[in-house]
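Priority: medium. Attachment 1 of 2:
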């Protein structure tokens, strides 16, 4: 896929660095086309979703590493973390893009559904769990 930007892309994108937050089980490869297209106009970084086992802890960890002011884009779980970053430091976020995410807390039923996947991952069956949980054509073509 080819991405193009307008002649005034620098003005449209703003001057703050762009921080991308991938979804769960994803990394910077997911945003490779966006990084390639946007890096000519502004600093782009992908923050790994590390630093805790709760959204609040991950957001706090990431926020400590970010510049004073930045644009933020989050996909799926990255979007949930982006909302927590915005809640904690609204004056630092210049722009926000949320993709395929929700502002709602996980319900007890959703948590119970996810528990077998967590157990599988913790007991060395991560690959097996991913094969069951993710469609074959999901994710980046890496």
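Attachment 2 of 2:
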């Amino acid at each position: 896929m080819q991405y193009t930007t307008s002649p005034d892309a620098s003005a449209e994108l703003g001057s703050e660095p762009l921080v991308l937050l991938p979804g769960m089980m994803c990394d910077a490869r997911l945003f490779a086309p966006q990084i390639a297209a946007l890096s000519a106009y502004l600093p782009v970084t992908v923050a790994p979703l590390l630093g805790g086992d709760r959204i609040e802890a991950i957001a706090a960890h990431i926020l400590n590493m970010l510049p004073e002011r930045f644009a933020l884009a989050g996909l799926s779980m990255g979007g949930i973390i982006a909302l927590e970053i915005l809640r904690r430091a609204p004056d630092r976020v210049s722009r926000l893009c949320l993709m395929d995410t929700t502002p709602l807390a996980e319900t007890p039923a959703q948590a119970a559904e996810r528990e077998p996947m967590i157990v599988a991952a913790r007991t060395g069956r991560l690959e097996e769990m991913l094969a069951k949980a993710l469609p074959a054509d999901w994710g980046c073509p890496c």
